[in-house]
Amino acid sequence: MQNSVHFILQGKGGIGKTLVSTILAQWISAKDETPLRCYDTDQENATFSRYKAMDVKHVPVMTDSRTIDPKRFDALMIDILEEDGNCVIDNGANTFSPLMGYLIENDCFSLLEESGRKVYIHTIVGGGDTLHDTAMGFVSTAKSTSVPLVLWENEHFGLLQSASGKQFTESQTYADNSSRVKGRVVLSARNADTFGADIKKMNTARLTAQEVRESDKFNLMEKQRIKVVFRDLFEQLDKVEW
């Protein structure tokens, strides 16, 4: 994994974009010794930039009048292109449309590829009540770009299936765009009282899995469950056609 640029893009808020960013960043860091560069473009909830271990750079694109100034994304692109290495860009629901518009209008994906970068868009589809909106977001992202996609299936809100029981990945919506998907990662719904509580504790403290291993704030079984979760996620990421 070298000279890759990963955009986490989904217009719906609260669907797990920052969680995906942190998991992906930890996986890339374990794969490549080159320092990983992380960016957070969320203007309301800059959660990703609170993970100290990842040294995330916040990209301020909101003006004093609380509108998004697309030109301020220039600094992000210049920063990405100035040095070789891997980059992860987390994005908030509030900046999804402005960032997507900027990337497409300025032909940024081609610019990155011409500069020797491998570009990926990571998009999240959620289950339960979030399925319809996030599935539409997946389609919109697939149709507006030609960039390889990595699909994250977030089961936290329920299974990714329609009222008739059809899985999202068996739907026509998915089939029409599946050739673009280079890999899928399932964020499985695990026992909320054990695994769920431990992951929440870890995320609330803004810690990486490595920091949890070295922390005295987590007991042996909490560390074990977090290890199990990350082993599963990393194995899934290993299978993506990068």
Describe what is shown at a glance.
With 242 residues, this protein is of the alpha/beta class.
Can you name the CATH architecture? Answer: 3-Layer(aba) Sandwich
Distance between the termini: 8 Å
Strand order of the largest sheet: 3-2-4-1-5-6-7
SS summary, helix count: 9
Strand content bin:
15-25%
Give the helices and strands as they follow along the chain: EHEEHEHHEHEHEHHH
CATH topology: Rossmann fold
Mean pLDDT: 94
What proportion of the residues is helical, as a percent range? 40-55%
Instruction: Tell the overall outline.
Output: globular
CATH class identity: Alpha Beta
User: How big is the Rg?
Assistant: 18 Å
Most strands sheet: 7 strands, parallel
The domain tally reads 1
Low-confidence stretches: none
Total beta strand runs? 7
Protein name: Conjugal transfer protein TraL
InterPro entries: P-loop_NTPase
Organism: Duganella vulcania
List keywords for this structure.
Conjugal transfer protein TraL, about 15% strand, globular, about 240 residues, alpha/beta, P-loop_NTPase, Rossmann fold, 9 helices
Kindly describe this structure.
- The chain is α/β, with parallel strands linked by helices and 242 residues long.
- The chain has a single domain (4-238), classed as P-loop containing nucleotide triphosphate hydrolases (Rossmann fold, 3-Layer(aba) Sandwich), CATH 3.40.50.300.
- It is 42% helix and 15% strand.
- The protein has a 7-stranded parallel sheet with strand order 3-2-4-1-5-6-7, sandwiched between helices.
- Strand 5 (118-126), helix 5 (131-144) and strand 6 form a beta-alpha-beta unit.
- The longest helix is centred in the last third of the chain and has 19 residues, at 220-238.
- The model has no long low-confidence stretch (mean pLDDT 94).
- InterPro entries: P-loop_NTPase (IPR027417).
- This is Conjugal transfer protein TraL.
